Amino acid sequence: xxxxxxxxxxxxxxxxxxxxxxIRDLILESYIGVYNHEKDNSQKIRVNVDLSxxxxxxxxxxxxxxxxxxxxxxxxxxxxxxxxHVHLVETLAxxxxxxxxxxxxxxxxxxxxxxxxxxxxxxxxxxxxxxxx
Length: 133
Prior knowledge:
By secondary structure, the chain is α+β, with helices and mostly antiparallel strands. The chain has helices at 36-40, 70-82, 89-101, and strands at residues 18-30, 43-54, 106-115, 125-132.
């Protein structure tokens, strides 16, 4: 298995009561790019998201409603990507970060968006951003 090219971060932190929720290597078809050929054809992108989630005093009670649900986040990312053409990977990353920070439990989000077919002889090109509440 190929080693990850993501920079390891300490998102989980017991001293600050922070939980780490993440999505790795979400592959989607996207209409993204500034060039005409990118406007006419979809291309594969890879999205990675890391979230710092502030734990509250509420018990988990093994109830999905008491946690930040990665399935809901993945679905929301897919909705953003499917919402229409975007010129810049930076714009897409900002939109994903903004969506996640709407949840008051999320104090920090790191988003990486990679275009997998944009530049010949590369595995990927893209952007990584980090935003705090």
